[in-house]
Amino acid sequence: MMRASMRRTAGFVLAAVASFAAVCAAAQVLRTDLDWVRVPLSFYLIGPGSGWVRAAYVLLALALPVFGWSAYRALSLPARSAAPLLLFTVAGIALCVTTFATTNTYAHPATFHGLIHGIAAQTTFLCVTVAMLLQAGRLRHDARWCPYAARALTWAAVSFVGLWVQVLWRGAPHGLSQKLLIVFILGWLAWMAWLLWRKSAEVIPSTH
Predict the structure, then answer these.
(1) pTM of the shown model
(2) Mind listing the pLDDT tens digit for each residue in 142-163?
(3) 3-state helix, strand, coil in the chain (%, to 5)
(4) Residue 152's Cα: distance from chain center in Å?
(5) Which of these, 49, 18, 53, 57, lies nearest to 32 by C-alpha position?
(6) pLDDT digit string, tens, across residues 22-71
(7) What Cα–Cα distance (Å) separates residue 197 from each residue in 62, 107, 109, 129?
(8) Would you give the distance in Å from CA 35 to the centre of its chain?
(9) 201: DSSP letter
(10) CA 12 to CA 206: how far, in whole Å?
(11) Rounded CA gap, 2 and 21, in Å?
């Protein structure tokens, strides 16, 4: 039963990541009114086709705690930590808030819901990148996952550094830098979910 459950949850995370990537990539092409290099992904939550983008955001928001739970359960008991699961859950909640609190735009004055959107978006990025680091660190304590720990930790560290580069480097094209960071995060999640799916047949016998 646990093998089947892990396979389903890993498949759901993979589907959510793929859907988010596909919908948001399509939006970059179809929304010719927006400069994809300059504007952040949040701008695509407004206007034509925004319903599809919102749906992709919500799907990914659901996938984050699902991934956190699956990754937690996949590790041996000594390797488990609730911290990454908690952070992935907070990131999912923050991403939902990001989806429905309309962002500020360059064409209109700043608003309170725009402030909420910005705080929620930064909370999502911070929580998910820290969760990636912590989860990757736990892999070293499980013999079955240890071979993947260095790559997972390096990938997570690059994403974490990328977040702070985006925050501190004011001269960088905001849209491009943010989307590159998102690609790194999605790639890590997809790779880890694929490993979970592949290793579902090797899951540890204890379910406590």
Answers:
(1) 0.92
(2) 999 999 999 999 999 999 999 9
(3) 75, 0, 25
(4) 14
(5) 49
(6) 999 999 999 999 999 999 999 999 999 999 999 999 999 999 999 999 99
(7) 18, 45, 46, 22
(8) 23
(9) G
(10) 23
(11) 28
